[in-house]
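ARCHIVE CARD
SHELF: 3
SLOT: left
DATA:
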Amino acid sequence: MPANAQPRPRRSALYLPASNARAIEKARGLPCDIVVLDLEDAVAPEAKAGAREAAVAALEQGGFGHREVAVRVNGIDTEWGAHDLAALARSKADAVLVPKVACTQDIGRYHEALEGAPEAMQLWAMIETCGSVFNLEPIAAMAASTRLSLWIMGTNDLAKEMRARLTPQRTPFLPFLAQAVAAARLHGLTILDGVCNEFRDLDVFEAEARQGLEFGFDGKSLIHPAQVAPCNTVFSPDAEELDWARAVIAAFDLPENAGKGAIRVDGKMTELLHLDQARQVLAVAHQIAAIG
């Protein structure tokens, strides 16, 4: 499985139609961590071939700075999927994002389709089908033998398949969100929460983003530039978290605490697992600081 040489923030992943040159140019200056050029849902059938060409051209032009650039392709069984994969395998994309996977065999087919791609090119997958939520652990385990390195939840498509209502509380999907995070963590995948369809009321968006943070997601996928800044804020350690992390690390570094598995920090029992969490918080903060 290809991996980045260094960990990197993946707080915000902004979807853009690959056919929209103006939006792509704007994205080069937005503070999102990931740009996703979309060939699937955001592009009409008659425009898909042109969008594919536009995506490859945008990748060739570059100018995205620190941002990772992924391209969401059409499904491998559609009339456009094979052409998308062939074009992207020869491109400068950081990742190919594949839709509507349902089982391990799907991941295997996409991995094979990218056989000739650069070693560093990653395979990302949408978790958005009823089949996928009942195969989360086996699909995640494919990370050990394929390019698979990241999942994005597709709650809109999952709601459609389930005939469920996508409310602000997301009640029907909460078990699946938790299980997906657990499966991703078990096999070392990055995992991003699904989109929030509300981009005018940013309080609604922020509440959903904070729900995703509570579940353990690394970041969130977005549909509008206005969502980028609040998303980055939610998924960045705040001052209180940083103070806690520094205090925990400093306490365990004291000579009198050497070899101890549990100590008191600010009047609370703190164990080695909290030390690991503190180091992770500071690592994320350093990654964010590195991109300016």
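SLOT: right
DATA:
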Amino acid sequence: MRHLPPLNAIRAFEAAARHLSFNQAALELNVTASAVSHQVKTLEDYFGVKLFNRLPRNVSLTPEGKDYLPAVSGALDQLDSASRRLARRTADAPLNLGCAPTFAVGWLIPHLSDFHDEYPEIDVRLTLTPITRQIDFGASDTDVVIMYGTSGSWPNLVMHQLMAEELVPVCSPRLLQEHPLETPSDLRNVTLLHSIPRMGQWRNWLHIAGVKGVDPKRGLRFQTTPLAVSAAVAGAGVAIANRRFVETDLDAGRLIVAFEIDLPSDSGYFLIYPKESGDDPRVSAFREWLLTRLAEEMPEHGDPILEDTLPPGR
């Protein structure tokens, strides 16, 4: 049998210790400062030790309080994370999906109605998520994310590789009429379009193409790759894009591949979620649908559903 102090007293202590203020803790917990003080006193009486030094204008932790705080904070964080996961797994809970903008616009959104047709009972809530190396599922309602990176970018999380990159320079037919591009060196005569999060792409492509004398940093800069591609469609310049994401524009004649020189990349897009979410029916359904659809569309890459990418050494 566990002998635990009252939970309200624990919450009051942790908030007051984190803020070093009974008033700030009271605001967070939506109670009065005197109620926080009372709960802290209850905890001190429970253990028979003093946890705070009460000063005229603030409070400070005693050595016992400092020693107790990390364990309490860790336990509350675990309880909060577990509670969020349990709440998300109720039958009518939505599937909260975070997705890199380029993948969302280039592939997911055009296919998302297919998932809804197959799983109408799952309410997908999509949020565009900037590329990041820090993904904290416990601090948000997000269930899964689709993110750009490499296989070792997110240790301790389950990762499924979705799509490798095939990066090529693209532009509008109108731009080619006005500024013929016969060799890669002719790029000096047109505007280069950049995606700010991936500013090194033009430098790397020009190097692969053996082009000298073209400033890889000049041109127009955009917050995301979809914006840079939209500018290319409008004739503003030449952008670098994943061929898979601009197939519709290529087929419709809105874009043309300026040069058939691919930029090699060891990065790609991954479906990522905590290991404990792997058996969540909503996550499982989305994972199986996503990997199956991509395998059908990209048989040359093999069946991605057969290999889960986990952190090295795990």
